[in-house]
Amino acid sequence: MTYPIALLDACVLYSAPLRDLLMWLAIEGVYVPKWSEMIHEEWIKNLLLARPDILPDRLDRTRKLMNARNPDALVTDFEHHIPNITLPDVDDRHVVAAAITGNCDVIVTFNLKDFPDAALTAYGLIAVHPDNFILQCFTDSPASSLTALQQQHESLRSPPCTMTDLLQKLIRCGLPKTVTYLQTECGL
C-alpha cells in the first residue's frame, strides 16, 4: 500500500489537538507529512497573536520536535517555484511550491477556496479538508490510525482527559465526520 504524502498547511497545525493527531498518524506511518519553515512561521505567528499567554519558546520547542520526529518532513529549496504559481491569494503560493518540491499528493487545508482544483491539477495536487483527509486515514489504515489516536489520548496527562473529551476537542477542531466515524464504526 502506498501512503499519501501530505503538505500540511499552517491552518491545520494551528490547533494543538489537530496538530497532535496529525503527528501521531505520521508516527504510525499512515501518511507522510511535509511542511516548510514558512509554514511553521505562519502557524506559530498566528497562534501567538491569538494566544499571547503562550510562550514563544514553547511553540519553538514544538516546531523543533516536529522536525526532529519527522526529519524528512521539512521541505526546503522550493522558493523558485513561487513566481510561477497562480492562486487567489498570492501569499499561499509558498504552500503549493513546497508541495511541488516535496512530491506531495495532497495539501491538507481548511482553506479549500484558496487552493482551487484548476490551479493545482497542473502540479498533480489536490487540496483536501483535514476532516476528509483524517477520515480517509482511518478508513485506509484503521488499526494504525486507532493506535495513533490511542497514543494521542495517552499522551494527554497534564491535564488528563477522557477519550470522550478528546473526541469533543477534535469536533471543535473541525473533524465532525472523523469523530462520527470513530463513534459509529469503532465504538468510541
Separate helix tally: 10
The span between the termini is 27 Å
If you compute it from the alpha carbons, what radius of gyration comes out, rounded to the nearest whole angstrom?
Answer: 16 Å
In what range is the share of β-strand residues? 5-15%
Structure class: alpha/beta
Strand order of the largest sheet: 2-1-3-4
Task: Explain this structure.
- It is built from 10 helices and 4 strands.
- Helix content is 54%, strand content 7%.
- The protein has one domain.
- The longest helix has 14 residues, at 37-50.
- Helix 6 links the parallel strand 3 and strand 4 (126-128).
- It is globular, with a radius of gyration of 16 Å.
- Strands 2-1-3-4 form a 4-stranded parallel sheet, sandwiched between helices.
- It is an alpha/beta fold and 188 residues long.
- It has helices at residues 10-13, 16-27, 37-50, 56-69, 93-101, 117-120, 130-140, 142-155, 163-172, 176-185, and strands at 5-8, 32-34, 106-108, 126-128.
- The two termini are 27 Å apart.
Key terms:
alpha/beta, globular
Provide a brief overview of the structure.
The chain starts with a strand and ends with a helix.
